[in-house]
Amino acid sequence: MPPPGGAPYGGGGAPGGIIGGGPCGGIPAIADEHTASTGECEQSHTRQSPARSCLCERRLPQEVSYDSGVRGFLAIVVSLAVVPACITRDSEDKLCPPLKSGDLIVTEVRGPQMPVDAVNGEWVELYNASSGTIDLEGVRVRFRRKDGSSEIPIIVRTSVPVAAGEYTVLGLFLNDNTRPSHVNYGFAGDFTESWLAAAAIDVESCGTRVDRATYDVLPKMGSFSFTGAMQPDANMNDDLRFWCTNGTPSGTVFPGSPQMANPPCP
User: pTM score, two decimals?
Assistant: First the structure.
């Protein structure tokens, strides 16, 4: 659902970082944007980000020593003697699509199964409700605990075009040739925790929250699906009465309905 604000997520279905290493002098990276106030190294990225741009930053050259002779000229050195240093930027900063609230809609979530079903896996499905093709590169999806205590953010790091009126699936798989055909993008490189038992799923692009969906529990045999009895809608998918278990079996597993419209809820 498109958000009015950023309050913690309450119960009853109402709306309610990952730290990794960074390339800037070994300073750890954080999931949200951060700019070092010292000017020594600015970074805005998540772990394992392959797409980065390099900007210039003012930094004292290595050969300057802080003895008494240099101290008197420090102000001049700072203003004149600069060397380029790398400021890392995530792909989202440059490539995120300029989306409006409601352009992408969360329509299905499949969590861990019992018995374990590694073939079909865990994933979230998005529907393109806009009038044109959307490339998801740079889109963020944040899996947030409903009490607001923590989140698991992922970012789409490669081109994933989704035509208007089509469904796409982001799954907990590596984004390589081992990814199954029902998953359009694998985010296992970003997702470093267990799948959240209850969560709010925020879809964001260029700082805009495009949709939010929540769940209190996920089925162990099938997916949690927005009803196929109506067109996906970013306001209607706020109402958990329009969600249900998609437990259609396929052999001995319950794969859900990835990349397609869901069956109607009873």
Answer: 0.68
